[in-house]
Amino acid sequence: MTADRTAVSRPHRHRVLVAAALLPLLALAACGYGSDSTSSKSGTAASTASAGGKKLSASEVKIGYFANLTHATPLVGLKEGLFQKELGSTKIKQSVFNAGPAEIEALNAGSIDIGWIGPSPAINGYVKSGGKSLKIIAGSASGGVKLVVNPKTIKSLKDVKGKKIATPQLGNTQDVAFLNWIADQGWKVDATTGKGDVSVVRTDNKVTPDAYKSGSIDGAWVPEPTASKLVAEGAKVLLDESTLWPNKKFVITNVIVSQKFLTAHPDVVQAVLQGSVNTNAWITANPDKAKADANAELATLSGKALPADVIDPAWQSITVTDDPLAATLQTEADHAVKAGLLTKPNLKGIYDLTILNKVLKADGKAQFSDAGLS
Q1: pLDDT of 23 above 50
Q2: Cβ neighbours of residue 371 under 8 Å, at least 6 residues apart?
Q3: Which residue of 122, 253, 317, 371 pairs with 326 in a disulfide if CB–CB is 3.0 to 4.6 A?
């Protein structure tokens, strides 16, 4: 694949969420529950379509994702040409985002057709549009989130009480998970201010390692590779979030599509999902090469590859999967409701796994459930 990459600034923006979905207190932090921030730069790229390849109903498909290890499927699949192989003469246009709200905004505006994104912005985008903007059409990754702490000040889980722990953003996926864990310990924290038995310090992932080094935080509940960056600075993993979930699996990245594009170009969506399924199988069969591919793409997009002591443990904690793990999406939404960040949303209709299961069936693979949310 050849590509021309152009840096595009996509800053975090405050977005007021639909009143029916959120409590009034969240007007102060509307980008929160719908955002999973990353530390990379944004960019765009265009792939070269296969000359003489099969012709689909669209000449171009616009794909969005993050420069983040939890988005390994697009990072690796685009580099290896596994998506383009299925798309034939349909050209791929790539857009790389720093935050969920910007990607949802791009989907709504038609700037992208299909995207890899975290569960919180997917829920927010669906609810905010009254169920009309997007569908979740496949899974992509599970795991990769850890509670990492200063071993000098925190030696056990009970020592977290009274300490300063960072999360990426008010109401984002990791923030909700940490607030839920705090509540399960019987401790009290005001979800909006982060003040209480634990001080929840909302800190962008890109500055969290420096905050840890300076001593302004005692630890962080963060996704990879930020967790492994902290470990490289002397922190230790106190808890892997996967241990809190059935079968140690929970959704961290899904594939979404514009409903308009899904209706107009189901053959293109099928080709992208075939590429996604093939990529996940390739990653599983070639983990070391896939890791190198992902790191090479991160270096291209962000200007710097991850060192071995960061990417090696980070990569091991993330599992690529075609399964959207739909039941865990509902649970994550329930956790946000429990924390007081979200009025119980109606997620009925958020999934359409028809094409995914068609692809999986044709490949002789197990098909997946939408947990009653189709």
Answers
A1: no
A2: 326, 327, 329, 330, 351
A3: 371
